[in-house]
Amino acid sequence: MNANAFPLGQPAFVTNVLDRAAHLRADDEKLFAMEGQGNARAYVVHRDSLVVKHDTEGPRALLTIDEALKLGANPGTIFLGLRDGAPVFGMGIGAAAVEKLLTRDDAAVAELRGMAMQGVVPSEQLSAIAMAKSMVSWHQRHGFCANCGTRTAMSQGGWKRDCPACKAEHFPRTDPVVIMLVTHGDKCLLGRQKQFPAGMYSCLAGFVEAAETIEDAVRREIFEESGIRCSDVRYYMTQPWPYPSSLMIGCSAVATSEEITVDLAELEDARWFTRAEATLMHKREHPDGLAGPHPFAIAHHLLGRWLKQGPL
Ligand SMILES: [Zn+2]
Fold first, then answer.
1. Do 193 and 285 reside in the same domain of the chain?
2. Is 167 within a domain?
3. Distance 270 CA to ligand 1 centre (A)
């Protein structure tokens, strides 16, 4: 996608500076040697948080392997790829080591989303950090074979787990989620979940189910959550969302009905907003304190595109 396709800037996690260099994953010896290179670097992640070192220039997320180990990172590495030819790895860290970090002045551990929103981590590094976060999380949750229950072993630089007993191969999963801006003439449909910040409304979203098309998932989720029927589903862009491992598929849809019935199990509220009102929310200038989604999220860009350019 070219730069012009992002008239409003970019959402997080969409530009990866790493060459995944997947051809190197099968060579264990080479990966081991790369880990020992002076230019090897690692991102250290713990659940939804990232470990950073404090230098004189400020916080730094990309650590040397030695720094990562000294901060208490687990020794197992996941090969994320090459950055300007230098190998970059993902590493996890245990809760006890994280506790110790909290007392140190030269390092910090903080929630990734907050750091990204505050610009603590350069935006071009977010995608690589998302890779580390999703992969470390997958390994932590998939230590045993789903087929026979035996403990599995990491292979392919961390991109596969093998079962020594039944020989099953396990690959990291990515869960597709549709997220869509529904419009009806000069109005758009936005909803809010209970846990959203006060006054914030966003696009409706939901997981794609087994054997379901993106188009059907969009229509189904909209109907389930708001009672609105819609047609003319169009794709806009995707955003990796490492919580823990989703791919947000941004779409638009045109409503063919207007009466809203909110699914209160999913949403606290869903409403039609006029273009004028949505514009104020998008700019965070609404007089009642209503706000649209943060620029970090694809929903902000789906809304912004409609406000700026009209229907797709
Ligand atoms: Zn097995």
1. yes
2. no
3. 45
The CA 156 to ligand 1 mean position distance, Å, reads 17
User: How far, in Å, from the CA of 93 to the mean position of ligand 1?
Assistant: 26
Total of domains in the chain: 2
Taking the centre of ligand 1 as the mean of its atom positions, its distance from the CA of residue 148, in whole angstroms, is 4
Measure 151 CA to ligand 1 centroid, in angstroms: 8
Among the candidates 89, 120, 141, a domain finishes at 141
CA of 171 to the centre of ligand 1 (A): 13
Q: What is the whole-number distance in angstroms between the Cα of residue 163 and the centre of ligand 1?
A: 5
Is residue 188 one of the residues assigned to a domain?
yes
Contact 160, 170 (CB under 8 A): yes
Which among 192, 309, 312, 179 is positioned nearest to 251, based on CA atoms? 179
In a domain, 111, yes or no: yes
Give the separation between CA 206 and CA 193, rounded to whole angstroms: 12
Q: Which domain holds residue 212?
A: 175-309
Single residue among 141, 160, 188 that ends a domain in this structure: 141
Q: Which residues contact 133 (CB under 8 A, 6 or more apart)?
A: 45, 48, 50, 90, 112, 242, 244
Reported pTM = 0.92
Distance 45 CA to ligand 1 centre (A): 28
Question: Considering all CA atoms of the chain, what is the largest pairwise distance in Å, rounded to the nearest integer?
Answer: 63
Over residues 93-128, the pLDDT tens digits come to 999 999 999 999 999 999 998 888 788 888 889 999
